[in-house]
Amino acid sequence: MNGTYMHEKARMSSRLLYLPLYAGALALSMGFGGMFQAASAQNKTVTIVLSEEPEGLDGCNANRSSVGRVVKQNIVETLTEIDPKDGSITPRLALSWEKVNDTTWRFKLRQGVKFHDGAPFNAETATKAIHRTMDTSVKSGNARGTGGLDCETRTKSFGDLKIVGKPVDAYTLDIVANKAVPILPTRMGVVSLSSPNTPNDKLVLHPIGTGPYTFEKWVPGQEITLKRFDGYWGKKPEADGARYIWRKESAVRAAMVKVGEADIAPNIAVQDATDPSMDFSYPNSETTRLRIDVTQSPLNDRRVRLALNYAIDREALKTVLSNDVIPATQIVVPGISGHNPKLKPYPYDPEKAKKLLAEAKAAGVPVDKELEIIGRTNLYPNGTEHMEATMAMLQAVGFKVKMRMLEVAEWIDILTKPYAEDRGPVLLQGQHDNNNGDAVFSVFNKYACKGAQSVTCDEKLDALIAKASALSGDERRKTWEEALRRIHEDMVCDVFMYHMVGYSRVGKRVNFKPSISTNSEIHIAQVTFKK
Amino acid sequence: MTRFLARRSVHSAFALVGLIVAVFFLARLTGDPTNLFLPLDASLETRKEFAHKHGFDRPAIEQFWSFVKDMSHGDLGYSLRKQRPAMELVLEAYPTTLKLAGATMVIAIALAIVIGALAAYRPGGVFDRISGIASLAGASAPDFWVAITGILIFSVSLRWLPTSGVGGFPYWIMPITVLALRPFGLLVQVVRSSMLSALASAYVKTARAKGVSERTVIFVHALRNACLSIVTVAGDLTVGLINGAVIVETVFGWPGVGKLMIDSVIQRDFPIVQASIMLTATAIFLLNIAIDLIYVALDPRIRHQ
Lengths: 531, 305
Known about the structure:
The complex is a heterodimer.
Chain A: H1 2-29, E1 45-50, H2 65-71, E2 80-82, E3 89-91, E4 94-101, E5 104-109, H3 123-134, H4 152-157, E6 163-169, E7 172-177, H5 184-187, E8 213-219, E9 223-228, E10 241-246, H6 250-258, E11 264-268, E12 279-292, H7 302-310, H8 314-321, E13 326-327, H9 350-362, E14 371-376, H10 383-396, E15 401-406, H11 408-415, E16 426-433, H12 440-447, H13 459-470, H14 473-491, E17 494-506, E18 510-511, E19 528-529
Helix pairs in contact in A: 7-9, 12-13, 13-14
Chain B: H1 2-29, H2 34-37, H3 44-53, H4 60-72, E1 78-79, E2 84-85, H5 86-121, H6 126-140, H7 143-157, H8 169-199, H9 202-209, H10 214-242, H11 246-252, H12 257-266, H13 270-298, H14 300-304
Antiparallel strand pairs in B: 1-2
């Protein structure tokens, strides 16, 4: 009895033990090296792995980077284009332009262009497309997102500026503004033109433009595909199509390009950019800073604000972020018209910081009052560590500082007006992106008395902003330079940190050079394949 | 049985209504979504206009009545961010979560029963010790770390499996393995301790004395009695998974409801938050009823009460 029992027990044990092994062997036998490499040498579809799924694909939201990277200059195009090398304006759907008067510019349009649905591109259809982006007259009667579009292009880049198209002839278009607009050609670089058959009262998920690629399909949560448009007016692109997928984790995006599942990961974290043969760094048009709330004591004292700046060792802090970042002196990056190259970062001088604090204290400024650094989680890679190191540097020269990291929604409540009365002396971590070619897109909002995110109100600065906004050419550039000098040297409104860099990984079968515009658009037509 | 089901359904319906009301008002307490929808550079006027147009400036109670009115027509709201009806988005994501959770739990339970039973069969033996260490490691390993390490080893170095994404059988291996580790680890411990008690009981000794085969002793006599505690723990773990496996969905790019829900909470996309919580809550209530029915099937004493 006992012998039979032991025998059966052993036999059963050995059978059961094999089960997990069978399962493991079956699992591994299903996958072998190379079988998942979607991007094979013969396949001419470019696979791009993004960090998030686009929230929509309507051309009028192409200013949003998650949307722009798919649609801008691929599906929908603009009249003009901003050259990422120097910020200059180049032709796209418009061949040339001239100023008629302060409020009117005349654009000569490209001929022989058609939309993907067959509609012709001309002054009349361009007018309709501009109207779709700018129109706010259709009021919503419900909460369905219909009735008057909340186009990001309008809300972000135009504010209270309104423009309308007025056809002069089939291929000549006047664009008229409600006020003087000296850089209208620059502004038109952000207005994507959709087919006249696109509905005006709702955002679309199937964009139709004039670009080199047409929208093919969107499998929610999984992928978006584009295919080459054979009727494109320009040079035939090499890639047959594009496939966009998304993975939240940078390590996964980098791994996908490494093993050939994707060709381009436009945005990976610095710690994942470990392969010099595939990884590129590029200035990404973002500038980081601590916004000083100059209305609050003791931050309303200029000596205290200077002390904050002298307390920061920007060279040492680089190690937290990347050795490629550039210490910043202003809110716009080099290459943007108005950037002042003469400004110098405040040097690291803790003794000077202590001396300034002592002077302020002697003058009765309550320098012992606790300051608060308010940061935002995931604002940029290692942003929390950056703030922790900054806090330690400020404490080292004698500031009393505490720190709080917020989620995006709470952080925006502090960033934008109206401000809480009892907010206290806050140093707000911020990152600002301007690749639109001109300082006007940054300075008014951040520093003017009426700016939505401004904590300053300086008459001289407001006058400079108003003057620069109305000028063009060299005079405009110089006036912006003076405004940025005043902010940095006279008013000391910020602790500027860095002009940031982005990292892209590009697979070995394609040629693609990331640039400042990679942050917001990826031109598939520029991607070529290695022989 | 019918009365039992009816009673549980009524209780569940009340709980569901309470949950919907709580979620609606708690979500609004997080603040106005206007600032999150509009670009940072939008003017104050644009913000006001947007909030007014979409009703975000109305009192929460007014918004609630509109929500109730719409819901009575089967309309659970429209996601401004995704530009689609909220329930449509949730229903699209939910099958992925259910498939992932279902496959994970089937594999975790099957393996845990086999390994836990074997460990209990020779307590203190080599197999018991090894399975004890392995199950504790599985139960305590952080999902995120295991997922990324798995990708680096099996996809980047060995090139055996795809890094991520949705597709055929190979695409399931890593997500399910990562997701199954914790339930497997916990269930092995539960199966082992339940089986130890069962195998030491008088009825098992009687069965063996009568000459019943060892397989029947274990899988009919002992396991059936050990099953109640296994079902309780497995049910609880399944509830956790059908809420969405956020980390696994995020790392492996699986478009499930967990990731959708978390993203919507962060972005204050209220209609999606409401629709996804309503659907997952309903699924959990149904699962609980199913667990009750399994109890009844397993233990005749419950049936007679």
